[in-house]
Design brief:
Number of strands: 37
Number of helices: 14
Structural class: alpha+beta
Mean pLDDT: 76
Strand content: 15-25%
Largest sheet: 6 strands, antiparallel
Strand order of the largest sheet: 29-28-27-26-31-30
Distance between the termini: 66 Å
Radius of gyration: 29 Å
């Protein structure tokens, strides 16, 4: 009886139908009555209705533009076949002796190796600029991940698997044959492995062999050398794909390609939409945060990977005791899909101020899978479904807790950034049934202008598809940034007394320096009614101590602003309303990738660190490039020397290429004093230069002995003023009998070659 061969064509599993779209997680449903049925109990009409609503949500998202960029991870991941190490198709004497398996020692920071794969067609005008920005963003995002996640490191070089269904057309099908299920016939059209259009180098892949019925197997491709010192391979493409063409708001999308023997992701691809990547409305910080979001998907925060998460009761080091989690997601009694793992549930309960542990973290449902947090509950988290800019996005503790629950990673929670949305709001926060009834600290119910909950921007009370009818103050399209000094157009009058400045914030107010004109009944002039129409306005603020601050309006003195109260401003009619639980909380603004505005307190010493930058001869930078470089330098400073971002404020680079950043320890910041950190950085930068890549240039620091630093007291309203004016200000402040210190150290930078 001769050998039997089994055809491998069409062996992939079929996909499940789209699941229900849940309309809320509260005690009553927006559509239909009570109902505690899950998707299994839905009728065909109900399912079709949910799919129609899902389609409406997606169409509406496309109209919102880049400000609310949609994520394509779920559909991208479904297009990729996940590969695991399998029964070897290569004889032992042809194989590498080292497998990409974890070593037996303690977890180490995740090592991410990136490979840029240039598309064959790269003559487009956008190519150099888009490529440079993409690679800079990948470096930044990978550094943040490496500071937050640790794994059991791969022992030896990392080698990826090949897909037998791609290179092999048939296998030996006789269970009694020695070569059972080994490749008996090659696919003549096989051209290698790929992931999301990225062709994987043969050097990163295991080999494959053709097995005859009898005799010696024929080695077709030997094992590649693999990649050393790596736990995850990230392939990078910059292209204008069909997905990019169809989705005008997409910055990038990504998918995981391969898993190790414990199902931990080993490799993935991120595709940047080139024409969108060069949009002038996107800063480098925006691209970094979008990259971070997609990279976290590829590392395991994915609806397709949830079912593979591991339960490791003895810890990550005892990997042999891990097993697949019995339940990662579940539905509550109202049909809301939840991530029900312990660390994430506990982190959410802590965030909401609820004793004990919540029953799970609500997930957004956009189709058959769910790979994002529910926006109504975790607005501003890095893993919500829409992206609204780097300054409004945080790598939050709930997201990091989810990675701990995966069983693949050890989490460094000091890398987490505080999430303000919903903090301390209680277990009922974010319910569709309650968010519309009355305004709260986070949701609004009336039309009109107000302040975004971070108080960096003016906003309008509106909803979006992910909020499902709940409304919040969303930043205006233009001119809403209180923290931008050019936000107020030059004009003859400013009766509201607005001030746009790096330390300005949005306040609800109805201030005016003018008496109202005659009304329609021609009654005499009257002063404004303080109850009339408060709206979002930009005014200076400065912290006096944790949770307390003062405000200043154009031409007015500093006025104490008691949180939760309304204050009168000398020289103005009307009232200014002081938000509570929002400003001067200890680490405000320190968690954004782009330099977030920060209000400085006088409770700690303030220091200034300056680096004179010069790179490749002839290299010049425009204003936008200087802003991007300032963030790159700051990120390299933070990650390169193992310090915390919460010390650094207001980074900038002048036209003379002098990088300046303020050092001040916010009340919630963990670590040494700002003075100790300033001294340590000065010493270490002297002996260990800082190398910064920006585009095709490299900037390198070198120590230069300058005159002794000068001590003086800073003013929070003039941190960036020239030194001469600061000295004059010191004289005036000294006459008033106050005293504090600001130290300044300057390091020069020499040219370097690329």
């Amino acid at each position: 009886m001769g050998p039997r061969a089994e055809d491998l064509t069409g062996s992939l599993e079929s996909r499940k139908n789209l699941s229900r779209v849940v309309q809320g997680c509260g005690t009553e449903r927006e559509h239909g009555g009570g109902g505690g049925r899950g998707s299994e109990g839905a009728t065909a009409d109900e399912t079709q209705g949910r799919l129609r609503r899902h389609g409406v949500k997606m169409r509406l998202l496309l109209l919102l533009g880049v400000a609310t960029s949609r994520c394509l991870h779920d559909e991208s991941q479904k297009s990729v076949r996940l590969l695991r190490p399998s029964f070897s198709q290569t004889p032992t004497h042809f194989r590498s002796s080292v497998l990409p398996l974890p070593a037996s020692h303690e977890p180490q920071p995740l090592r991410i190796q990136t490979y840029y794969l240039r598309d064959p067609v790269s003559g487009e005008a956008w190519a150099p600029e888009a490529e440079s920005r993409a690679l800079a963003a990948v470096r930044e995002a990978a550094q943040r991940i490496q500071g937050a996640l640790a794994v059991l490191p791969v022992q030896g070089p990392l080698l990826l698997s090949r897909d037998p269904t791609r290179y092999c057309r048939a296998v030996w099908g006789d269970p009694d044959a020695p070569n059972y299920h080994r490749c008996s016939l090659l696919n003549p059209g096989y051209k290698g492995e790929s992931c999301l259009g990225a062709k994987l180098p043969d050097a990163h892949l295991r080999g494959y062999t053709l097995w005859p019925e009898h005799g010696v197997p024929q080695l077709i491709q030997p094992d590649g050398p693999g990649v050393r010192n790596s736990d995850f391979l990230l392939y990078v493409r910059v292209a204008h794909t069909s997905k990019c063409h169809k989705e005008p708001s997409v910055i990038a999308y990504a998918a995981c390609c391969q898993l190790d023997s414990g199902d931990r992701p080993l490799a993935g691809t991120i595709v940047y939409c080139a024409q969108h990547l060069t949009s002038p409305s996107l800063s480098l910080g925006d691209v970094v945060m979008a990259t971070l979001h997609e990279l976290l998907h590829a590392l395991g925060f994915s609806g397709q990977l949830f079912k593979m998460w591991r339960d490791c009761p003895s810890g990550l080091s005892a990997r042999g005791n891990c097993s697949t989690r019995k339940q990662v997601t579940r539905r509550d009694e109202w049909g809301q899909l939840l991530l029900a793992t312990p660390a994430a549930s506990h982190s959410l309960a802590k965030h909401l101020g609820v004793p004990g542990t919540s029953l799970g973290v609500p997930l957004e449902e956009e189709g058959s899978l769910s790979s994002h947090w529910e926006s109504r509950l975790l607005q501003g988290s890095i893993m919500t479904a829409t992206f609204e800019g780097a300054q409004r996005t945080r790598l939050d503790p709930v997201t990091l807790a989810a990675f701990e629950d995966s069983g693949w990673y050890q989490v460094n929670y000091s890398a987490a950034e505080e999430l303000l949305w919903g903090r301390g709001a209680g277990l009922d926060f974010g319910l569709v049934s309650t968010c519309r009834k009355e305004p709260s600290d986070f949701f609004c119910t009336q039309s009109g202008l107000g302040c975004h909950y971070l108080h960096l921007d003016k906003g309008s009370c509106s909803s979006d598809p992910m909020l499902e009818g709940c409304r919040m103050y969303k930043p205006l399209t233009k001119g809403s940034e209180c923290w931008k000094e050019n936000g107020l157009l030059a004009r003859a009058e400013n009766p509201q007394g607005e001030i746009y400045h790096v330390h300005s914030r949005c306040f609800l107010a109805n201030l005016t320096s003018q008496e109202l004109s005659k009304d329609k009944t021609s009654r005499p002039l009257r002063t404004p009614d303080p109850r009339e129409d408060p709206t979002g306005r930009c005014y200076l603020h400065q912290c006096t101590h944790k949770g307390a601050y003062e405000v200043r309006v154009e031409g007015s003195p500093w006025t104490p602003c008691l949180p939760g109260k309304a204050v009168q401003i000398p020289g103005y009619y009307g009232l200014l309303y002081c938000p509570r639980g929002r400003l001067c909380l200890g680490n405000e603004g320190t968690s954004a990738v782009t330099s977030s505005p920060t209000s400085l307190s006088t409770q700690d010493l303030l220091f200034q660190l300056s680096l004179r930058l010069s790179g490749t001869p002839g290299h010049s930078l425009g204003q936008e490039q200087r802003e991007e470089l300032a963030e790159v330098v700051l990120r390299a400073l933070v990650t390169g020397y193992g310090t915390s971002r919460c010390y650094f404020h207001s980074p900038s680079i002048t036209t003379a290429l002098v990088f300046t950043v303020m050092l001040w320890k916010t009340p919630g910041c963990q670590g040494p004093s700002a003075a100790a950190l300033h001294r340590a950085l000065t010493l270490v930068l002297t002996e260990k230069p800082l190398h910064v890549h920006h585009g095709d240039a490299i900037f390198t620091t070198e120590h230069s002995k300058l005159p002794a630093s000068l001590d003086h007291k800073p003013s929070t309203t003039g941190l960036l003023l020239p030194t001469g004016f600061c000295l004059l200000l010191l004289t005036l402040v000294g006459a008033l009998g106050t005293l504090a210190y600001q130290k300044r150290a300057t390091l020069q930078v020499g040219p370097a070659t690329t």
